[in-house]
Batch of 2 targets.
Target 1
Amino acid sequence: QVQLQESGPGLVKPSETLSLICTVSPGSITSGPYYWGWIRQPPGKGLEWIGSVYYSGPVYYNPSLKSRVTISLDMSKNYFSLRLNSVTAADAAVYYCARGQKNNSMFDYWGQGTLVPVSS
Amino acid sequence: QSVLTQPPSASGTPGQRVTISCSGSYSNIGRNTVTWYQQFPGTAPKLLIYTNSQRPSGVPDRFSGSKSGASASLAISGLQSEDEAEYYCASWDDNLNGHVIFGGGTRLTVL
């Protein structure tokens, strides 16, 4: 049973950078045909895909967020991370990490999610 | 505004069969598979249906998915009170280098 766990600061100020990491266990993020993704959900709203990364390949980003987002992996520590620059109140959401597949909308394992408020 | 269109709400009585629609376009549902998720308040989404109609282990066969052209549907037969949840469809979209898109979600109420 794969487990994913998000972690990061509980609060971000407007115009600053949101940074989260997702640790994966058991197993390696470099094994299997898996992409590792971030999805967010503003309070009371629907799901929005942020992006997905493969350990040896391309990173795919939501076109609407691409200019502000970086998703990367740390293979030595077996986690992947999210950085979202220049945040505004509209970026306040529960952020989920999940395991996915290439060119596919299937995410079979999810983290529990972490709420990131944006406030000064 | 979501690229995949779902009705905001659906309802049914216990034992009934309900369907939830998901409408897209050629670049997403028309060319790629559809995934369905179930989400209860305060919890992470759960994979319900993948590759249009496949159920992961542990998902009751009361849940079924189908796809035709650029549209998809989730059907729940023998509706139970514990099925009351939010349901999301999702698909890969080939435009703009490729990306995942979600429907806006459908709130299912069991009357």
Note: Chain A is about 0% helix and 45% strand.
Target 2
Amino acid sequence: EVQLAESGGGLVKPGGSLRLSCAASGFTFSSYSMNWVRQAPGKGLEWVSSISSDSSYIWYADSVKGRFTISRDNAKNSLYLQMYSLRAEDTAVYYCARDNLWASDYWGQGTLVTVSS
Amino acid sequence: QSALTQPASVSGSPGQSITISCTGTSSDVGGYNYVSWYQQHPGKAPKLMIYEVNNRPSGVSNRFSGSKSGNTASLTISGLQAEDEADYYCNSHTTSSTLRWVFGGGTKLTVL
């Protein structure tokens, strides 16, 4: 069974940093690209970043480019999102999702990031 | 980047059919057959319902179907059921700037 479990969310002050993790199981992690998608409270889904299976290709939304860094460790079946210079508008539930069939076919339950003083 | 355009809300009675539209540009919806649709119930993670415009993942009811014409994709739900009440999001691959994916703003489906 495919499982994705995010962790690392919490309360952080504006300008602060946070590192999210996503533990994957139930599939060959190293064979799939992965995505981070976020959802601000009461708002819609927003794609944040993607990384190819071997980390050779990385994409970012304009809203996070230069502040967020996506990475993965295929040996540990883990995906990461390092977030710097956090702003109030980064407050959201962050989901990791498997990229397959030109879609996100499996999603974690999400981790809440709150940026507030 | 601009999100894909969806109606904010649609509604229908049990047993009826509804269609949700998703309008983009030639850089996303119109340029690729990589449109997907997601269902999200309150407090839950999104669930993939349609991929590559009109394909259903295993386990998704055949009451859900997708199509595309030009820069507009559509999700049709036939034989509406109470459990279909949820938010629906379209998504497309994009080659706009250095991006990869773009979502629609979401549509709230109410089953009357």
Note: The CA atoms of residues 6 and 22 of chain B lie 5 Å apart.
